[in-house]
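This protein record is not my work; I was only asked to verify it. The record follows directly below this note.
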Amino acid sequence: MKLAITGGAGFIGSHLAKEIIKQDHTLVIIDNLYRGNLQNLVPLKDYEFQKIDIRDFGDLRDVLKNVDGIFHEAALTDVQESFTKKDEYADVNIRGTENVFKIAKEFELKVVYASSSSVYGNPKKIPITENSERAPINPYGNTKLEDEILAEKYSRDGVSIIGLRYFNVYGRGQTGSYAGVITKFINQLKERKPPIIFGNGSQIRDFIFVEDVARANISAMNSKVSSGFFNIGTGIITSIQQLANTMIELSGLELKPQYEKPLDGDVQESQADTRFAKETLGWEYEIGLKDGLARFFPQKP
């Protein structure tokens, strides 16, 4: 198959590209390099690269008309930034995504795209099922909800669209907007500084390793499922306090976290119910948090 990834030079997209190439598919990577980085693609071989912004419908159509399926990863993803750049986030995340869906409809292509657990906002109970209320609490989450409404609309028109609701994705090459707390903690520990926790550290998260996310995308594309939304997480909760302590332990440093006031739009509790993905897509996570985090730190003799 010839497959395309929008945002393929980004954090998740580049890991997904690696998985696709391993399976001997022909690959087209699309990225405007605004947040993506060609350095992420250095380890890869045998792919075509197109520098295109997903808002440029004509250029995007010219490339996607020749593929068999689309992984749509391109988006702006920083929650805090979304408060100050609402229009830009809407333009990229909503208009750009609809361009992908329009092209998929025209050429009868299957789309697997990056939704987000942010569509749930602060859930009334956890773990969160796919049928839980969607009530985002920040502009980024609002754009992802609008994308889901578009996905439902185009699915009713016969387009095959699967949305994967990523929980807190982390791994090598991540930027601050993906599981941003892990990126920040790593940077602080590399400078031998204590991790800074915003709030009291009781916030709970479901951290999912990027390689597991890449496999989830492949499973969704290969499945006979034509449409729907799936939680992509581990189902295991970790508090920010626990995360900080684990990362300090792995670093081998004698430090204690520091605390600052909470951030706006920060979700208090997030935990995926992943049974639907396991039962329907045959996917489940493989790499636990401590094993994943250990890859960031030098191995002790």
Q: What stands out?
A: The chain is about 40% helix and 15% strand. The chain has a mean pLDDT of 95. Residues 2-167+209-233 form a domain with the Rossmann fold fold (CATH 3.40.50.720). The two ends are 44 Å apart (CA to CA).
